[in-house]
Task: structure prediction
Amino acid sequence: MYWLNGVASQLSLASALRGNTTSKPQDADKHFRQPLDIVSVEASPHASLFVSCTTTAVYLWSVKPTAVLSFVERSEKHINEFGANKHIMWKPDATAIVILTTKNYLLLYAILSFEQRSFEFNFPHSHHAFVTGPGEGGGPRTMLLKFRLAIRVDAGVACGTSSDDTLIIATQKPAAIQCISWNPHEVNSTQTAVQNKLGIFVNASEKMVSIVYDKAMNVSVWITDAGRVYFVQNGGSMNARQRRRSSSGRRSSSSASMNGSPTVPSYKDMISWTGTCFHGEEEEGLDTGKQATCVAVNGKFSLIAVGTKSGKVYVYSANNYISAPTLSHEFTRQPNGPADLRSTTHAAENSIKTLAWTSDGYALAVGFERRGLSVWSVYGHPLASINETDDIFYSRGDAGEPYLPQDTYVKGVSSLFWGPGNHQLFVLSAPFSNDKSDDYFAVESEGTGLFTLPFAKSAITSFHNADNARRGLLQMDDRILLYNYGGDYQENNTTTIDPDAVLWTQVLYPPMYITDHWPIRYASISPDGKFVAVAGRRGLAHYNTFSNRWKMFGNQQQEQEFLVRGGLAWYKNILIAACEILNVPGAAKVYELRLYSRDNNLDNAYILYTETLQHAPLYISICGSYLLVYTADNVLSVYNIITRSESINAANAAIMNGNGNVNVARLERVRRVAFGNVVARVTRVRGISLFGSHNGDQMNSVGDIISANIIILVDGKLIMLIPRVPDDDDDSDLTGQANTQAQYDLHVLSDKTEYYWIGRKSIANLWTSIWVVDGKGVKVYANLLRSDDYGFNTFTNDPFESEPSTPTTPGILAARANIGRPYSLGFRIGPEPLSPSMSVVEMDGYSSWRIPSIRQLDDGTIYIPLDFYPHSMLLEKGVVIGIEQGMVFKESLGFMIYKMSSKTHLFIHHILQHLLRQGFEEDAVVFGRAYERLIYFGHSLEILLHTVLEEETENRPHHDPILPLVIKYLDQFPHALDVIVSCARKTEVALWDHLFSVVGEPKDLFELCLADGRLRTATSYLIILQTMQPLAVGGKDTIRLLQKAMDVEDFELCKELVRFLSSIDNSGKTVQEALEVIKTRMDPNNPMSPNTEDAQVAKVVQSMQGLTST
Result:
């Protein structure tokens, strides 16, 4: 989802300070703290600006380019009067900031913006060429910090936050909540509420230490000095009766809950705080480790993250305003093995200092007070972790100190926030003391550093569609990363995965586009992975992997006239964009669906078709030949995409557009469904798809659309709407009166869903599939709602049969070469063959592998745990592909290098194990044969056997034993004997008794291998026999095998057998007998046979005889 990739950059104020100190005496402010010691950093609401402050100065920065726009250095007199800087608070519209000082003053600074650009280049020649970076095209606008006024708070300020027009602070003595106007002329218009009279706190003596207001959810989260966290809302004009407290001083749960949505806190209206405790609600003292230190609100997924002193993050779900948030899941950083033992920090220093969600809500950055930082996905998958105790920092030995002269944030974090587009994480390292002169971390006393960490993110974080979820498409600040689009073995007929082909191709954004329109808001890849479209602040561009070229608007005025809102989608050679048209005369906004041809230039004259929308589009997606459009009025519209080859005929060839040419493509709305009873907040919808029980998301007709189920991803829940039996007289879907409550039954398929995709290919009896990523692994819903009339003769066993082979493709029998025949152990699943010569027969009857109803969803779900984060799935290869975070540190460089490593995981054995546990033996055979040609299919069977063997040996009572069924299943393939012996050799000897009690005696399996001529497999069984029986018996078996090897002239195997005998035969008698066999069977006329002179067999025999005589 989010991965570090590159090198951290450190921001410096040195240049700005040098320019300001030339006119000052050298000892003017020498008693003040060093000017580079940043005490606070805060980003503006949209993170395009941020402010840092030292104790004596305030600096306004732009993110792109990262530079200081304005700064105010306070005088000694000003600091003595009002106090040193301590904390920063932004006004939500980014027009002002407030600095909290050590003497309890609020210093209000206005941010004045001018049209003139800063940092403009001046060259002697007007045509001098230069290239700027992403977002740096015109340079930042000139901005100035101007001091307005100072507000004294006699009660002392503990913490604060801000709503639209109101500054909300918590005072100390008395403990109260005070609301102050941001308008300098109305600072006396305040409202105050004493905390112990609110009736919210568990203990009336608790005091506020932190307060956070989230505009998206319109709620406040308070932390008290007891470590408890409260979910607080503004009830507006509640009367005094509603605010009465219970006799214990705490409002009852019924009166504490609010009816309806809360109002925005404003100094203009009556504010009535209501709330309830949701973390640490127990009446007794809260455990120290569970005490909260910081919070962060995720408005996209309705989650609240609570950081604690123990280093654990508790994530709560807040889906409504009526009840208190409930615990959803927890984040715990795993100890770094022996490396953590080196750490001399106390347990209390694991405390979490700061939290920050990405703007899309998909990842959480956690800064630890003394343990670096970590990044988790929204539902708990660890994406990155940086800690000073990591092994890579200890190149000087276990007893040495870590060598980190530059990346000081790995020792501790004071504050962090995400930049625009979430491509950069800004980190303020924690201050530290220079206790030792040789401390590698000490740059200066109590020094802090401001760093930016580069991240690559999955394209589905900004736009969730089927192709982005199925294929690997990553976005960085200045480029996109395409997963193996060049060789694209995902589409060819190979039976293995070439490690050299697993590459990320980096494609830089066109400089002319990214400099003006950074950050990229949408990215969409085509179904074949050959075309990519992107959209930034204005316009769009698309990339062709065949020509390695971008296409952009040649007319910049046309590019500036619209912005993409709702997404981009590819249909064949057509790019569909949901747009908002800008600078249109009149008050009403204009929204359109535009169709562009990827073969034509991007120009308004070449637009294929335009469909006007009445409301803002929020999401678009392609399902087969139909376009789904979800708009701000909470309505899903389904359009049929009609292209010329489908629509132009003798009857309608007269369809003309405005300039007299025939329309190449057009849209025709066929269905409209309102989600009023399903989706409460339209901005929370992350994905919508149609799903049919027989065709997945590939809709080909209006009948498919009407009967299709609707899948919605909203607030982390994957919801399926199943249509009821339609009424012939009901035409509400065509008249615009469709209602989901009357037409659909709602079912929740999965909670805690990060993203999903629908399998587009049918693999044998895996007809349809839904793959859900939940943060810990992947859930598979196979053949959901499929009918029971699918016979085995319906399915194809070979996913490659319709695809052309290539010169590099292994032969058809490559996977079966020299591995024997099926049914070696005498087991058979399915019908008996018509003749003894038939080794594999087709299954009769009907497939039982399906989930017939939602009520049976849990029993039919297949879960695939993963230790990495998946980004794409190769269904025809049986592999899930993902990314694991990597780090490199070298003392010669002095800084960290972050990289991403591709990881793969086979899912074939997970599905086979599920089918065998369900008793679907024939389905398991049909599914397995679809992958039999893969080189690593035998390895999948080995993992299946090993997993089941360990589970049953450990006496796990979750399921009935299925090891006999697994052995029976293995015997349906020629890999059985190899899989059994390979599994045995890789498991503990203590498990052999259980394994061979089911399979049979190893001696019998050895004899089967000899009889079938599988000499190398028989060699592997020799190791098993040597462990389980005396040498005399094992030696005779080795001699027999040696004779067989000589008969088939496999002399390499003969050498291996002799080496094996010499390692287990201390007396040398058996080895001598083996050498005599070799000597008697050597053929001097065979050039492949070793002769006496080369092999020196006679000399070896004589030496063995001498050894035995002594």
User: Anything to note?
Assistant: The mean pLDDT is 81. The two ends are 70 Å apart (CA to CA).
